From TrEMBL:
This is Succinate--CoA ligase [ADP-forming] subunit beta. Its EC number is 6.2.1.5. Succinyl-CoA synthetase functions in the citric acid cycle (TCA), coupling the hydrolysis of succinyl-CoA to the synthesis of either ATP or GTP and thus represents the only step of substrate-level phosphorylation in the TCA. The beta subunit provides nucleotide specificity of the enzyme and binds the substrate succinate, while the binding sites for coenzyme A and phosphate are found in the alpha subunit. Binds 1 Mg(2+) ion per subunit. GO terms for molecular function: ATP binding; magnesium ion binding; succinate-CoA ligase (ADP-forming) activity; succinate-CoA ligase (GDP-forming) activity. One of its GO terms (cellular component) is cytosol. It holds the Pfam family Ligase_CoA. ATP binds at K50, G57, R58, G59, V113, E123. The lineage of its organism: Bacteria, Pseudomonadati, Bacteroidota, Cytophagia, Cytophagales. Gene3D superfamilies: ATP-grasp fold, A domain, ATP-grasp fold, B domain, Succinyl-CoA synthetase domains. It is an enzyme of class 6 (ligase). PROSITE patterns: SUCCINYL_COA_LIG_3. GO terms for biological process: succinyl-CoA metabolic process; tricarboxylic acid cycle. Substrate binds at N280, G337, I338, V339.
Amino acid sequence: MNIHEYQAKEVLKGYGVRIQEGIVAETPEAAHEAAVKLKEQTGTSWFVIKAQIHAGGRGKGKVNETGSNGVVLAKKLEDVAEKAKNILGGTLVTHQTGPEGKVVNKVLIAEDVYYPGASEPKEYYLSILLDRATGSNVIMASTEGGMDIEEVAENSPEKIMKEWIDPKVGLQPFQARKVAFGLGLSGNAHKEMVKFITALYNAYEGTDSSQFEINPVLKTSDDKILAVDAKVNIDDNALYRQKELAALRDVAEEDPLEVEAGESGLNYVKLDGNVGCMVNGAGLAMATMDMIKLVGGEPANFLDVGGGANATTVEAGFRIILQDPNVKAILINVFGGIVRCDRIASGVVEAYKTIGDIRVPIIVRLQGTNAAEGAKIIDDSGLKVFSAITLKEAADKVQAVLEA
Ligand code: GDP
Ligand code: MN
């Protein structure tokens, strides 16, 4: 689960990670008030207005309606409301959102931390993530902060340092010092970076996260180390014990069909093809998608209705698939193990009648307990539903429908 930058920064702060302070706002007026408050709290007189969406690249991204960037600087308190207005409610397109962009509902009003001083402010890159290959956590660090890390990895991989951490013993002090040295830091900045990395690792563990990306981490002109940006990804499997974090979920940032499917207990992933599929079991779903491709179709989705498929789940699955305008045919492939095929067949017919006005042909392949009875129910229904016994037969019917 992803959370917004403003939420992530609050969570990090709770673990002692120094952050660029800010206050979130949903209207231009609230943005102005946030700036006033921030000035009182931090003494800052420059402000950064940052679009809050679940995607990066905001600084270079553009708001369709106004041409504003997703991260802008205001050097006057009086400018904050106007600059926030140019972002709020607009559609921000960045290299991570895709061309359709994302609507911005909130902005973070943050203190300017790039103020001049004894030294130049310097941006670094830090991330912590799960390395499945070694069964450990890995800290990735680079002096090339603020840039797209994929680009750095492509053009100058030697500038990315990696430090693996055994989760059984946790981050050792020498490892935090090693990373700070690797970033070329000395003196007070070095000490601050060690503190920063240590607190960040504690936060990573404490929140059951699978990925943290802080880009940039900033060394201010007076040698403070702080998080200017924060991308936090929490492991979904831990949300049952991370109730406070689970409450930070923003469904407005997620695909609405995937949200609806989740509420019905369905495992749905939207894809770009033209054949909707509804299957029980992830392995069978993968095989079904292969079969669709084999006959020249493209799966419109992955949908696993789970082991206990019944009329209600079938109907929920139907409704979700039918909302996708690209769908030209639906292939239902269910193995009747615990559930009987005749029950599923009745469920399909029932759901079909309840929803009504289904314009795409449906091919149902039922195999297992009472398969023949199930096929008969489908064939006798008088609906635009076709039965099949083998997966190949089902796929051929899909092909015939696509070519018709
Ligand atoms: P992203 O583009 O979505 O990754 O958003 P970031 O939070 O990383 O911000 C993008 C860029 O905005 C940073 O790399 C900085 O160059 C700039 N920025 C962020 N905060 C400040 C600030 O306090 N002062 C100034 N001058 N620039 C900032
Ligand atoms: Mn960033």
